[in-house]
Design goal:
Shape: elongated
Structural class: mainly alpha
Strand content: under 5%
Mean pLDDT: 91
Distance between the termini: 28 Å
Number of helices: 2
Order of helices and strands: HH
Oligomer: single chain
Number of domains: 1
Low-confidence stretches: none
Helix content: over 70%
Largest sheet: none
Length: about 60
């Protein structure tokens, strides 16, 4: 369960960094990493029989 929470926390951190990033390329990289962490969290939730975490508010 700890990993699930850590994955989501990291995704949110990356999304917050992306919100203020001016470099479009770097912003895209941050959001791609956040998405990867959200996918890991979704897989972990599935493994635990939990509902999938909510999607990012920044999803495009």
């Amino acid at each position: 369960m700890k990993l699930l929470v850590e994955y989501l926390e990291r995704a949110v951190q990356l999304e917050r960094l992306a919100e203020t990033e001016r470099d479009a390329g770097f912003k895209d990289q941050l959001l791609a990493q956040a998405l990867a962490y959200r996918k890991l969290a979704a897989k972990r939730a599935e493994d635990y029989g939990l509902p999938a975490p909510s999607p990012s508010e920044l999803a495009r």
